[in-house]
Structure formats: C-alpha cells, structure tokens
Amino acid sequence: MGKLIGDMAKAGVLLGAEGCLPSSFGSRVRIESGEYNVTDGPFPETKELIAGFCLLQVKTKAEAIEWTKRFLSLVKTGTSEVRQLHDAPAG
C-alpha cells in the first residue's frame, strides 16, 4: 500500500488518503421532517462501510479507475467507489 501511495504522489495525482476509524467512534446524523436524529456507533448492521478514502486529481475518470484497480489488486477483495467532486465556483 505504501508503494501505491508513493506512486500516486510521484505521479502528482494524490491530494489525500486517510483510513477511517471503526464505526464505534462515529455518529450518523439524519434529518426527517425537519427533525435531526443523531445515533452514535458502532453500527453492526452496516452492509456497506466506508473504511477510508483517497482523493486524487486526475484528468479523466478512466485514469481514476486505473488507480482504483491498482488499489483493489492490493486488498484483493472489496468494492471502491469512484466519485467526482464539485468544482469550486470561479470567484
């Protein structure tokens, strides 16, 4: 994993990468009918869990997918989601 992160940094695409603490350290915040509900973890019923993230700045979605494939080849099992961020409006 360290080599992959190093490769991303050398390629100039890595903006950040962090692992997430277990859900026992987290909370879920939900709004329904204008009312907030805060539930503290852990969340044992979670079927889909965000375990970490990697923020890349690449030219194409295809490039992001190639980096993601390299990551998944290291962890051997699991799913990664590739998402774009909104660009900041020009000031």
Verbal overview:
- There is one protein chain.
- The protein is of the alpha+beta class and 91 residues long.
- Helices cover 27% and strands 25% of the residues.
- It has two helices and four strands.
- A hairpin with a 2-residue loop joins strand 2 (27-32) and strand 3 (35-40).
- The model has no long low-confidence stretch (mean pLDDT 87).
Summarize this, please?
The chain has 91 residues and is an alpha+beta fold. The chain is built from 2 helices and 4 strands. The strands form 2 sheets. Strands 1-4 form a two-stranded antiparallel sheet. A two-stranded antiparallel ribbon has the order 2-3.
Defining traits:
single chain; 91 residues; alpha+beta; Alpha-Beta Plaits; 2 helices; 4 strands; extended
Q: How many β strands by DSSP? A: 4
Shape designation: extended
- Sheet with the most strands, sense and barrel status: 2 strands, antiparallel
Q: Going by CATH, what is the homologous superfamily?
A: Dimeric alpha+beta barrel
Number of structurally distinct domains: 1
SSE-based structural type: alpha+beta
CATH topology: Alpha-Beta Plaits
Low-confidence stretches: none
Largest sheet, spatial ordering of strands:
1-4
Question: Strand-and-helix sequence, N→C?
Answer: HEEEEH
- Average pLDDT, to the nearest integer? 87
Determine the number of helices (DSSP H or I, runs of at least 4 residues).
2
Strand content: 25-35%
CATH class: Alpha Beta
Q: Roughly how much helix do the residues carry, as a percent range?
A: 25-40%
CATH architecture: 2-Layer Sandwich
Rg estimate, integer Å: 16 Å
Measured between the Cα atoms of the first and last residue, the distance is 38 Å
